[in-house]
């Protein structure tokens, strides 16, 4: 745990304000895809993200997160951040001899 805490500050300074994940696509970006399957995939990603957010919402309220952190937009940003950081942590765990399967 100390390793994560020591290295978290540099990571926090490099986080992006937004991510280009399908779940973050609005109506305009979705229609710009122009391919039926791509439009369907983007709409499905948004629907799935909203469902996951709704499922987690009660827990987030119980954790007393501040209102700005309870929004769907904040959920999308957190998802993008997790997806962006995941490969880095998997590599770090591999370098320490830790299997990703043991971390899930």
From TrEMBL:
Superkingdom assignment: Eukaryota
Keywords of the record: Signal
Secretion signal, residue range per the UniProt entry: 1-23
Statement: the UniProt record of this protein carries the keyword Signal: yes
UniProt name for this protein: Protein SET DOMAIN GROUP 40-like
Species per Swiss-Prot/TrEMBL record: Gossypium barbadense
């Amino acid at each position: 745990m100390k390793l994560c805490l020591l290295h978290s500050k540099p990571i926090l300074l490099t986080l992006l304000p937004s991510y280009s994940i399908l779940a973050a696509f609005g109506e305009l970006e979705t229609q710009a895809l122009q391919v039926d399957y791509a439009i369907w995939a983007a709409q499905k990603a948004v629907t799935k993200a909203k469902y996951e957010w709704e499922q987690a919402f009660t827990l987030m309220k119980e954790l007393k997160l501040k209102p700005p952190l309870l929004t769907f937009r904040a959920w999308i940003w957190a998802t993008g951040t997790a997806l962006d950081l995941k490969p880095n942590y998997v590599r770090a765990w591999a370098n320490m001899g830790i299997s990703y399967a043991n971390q899930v």
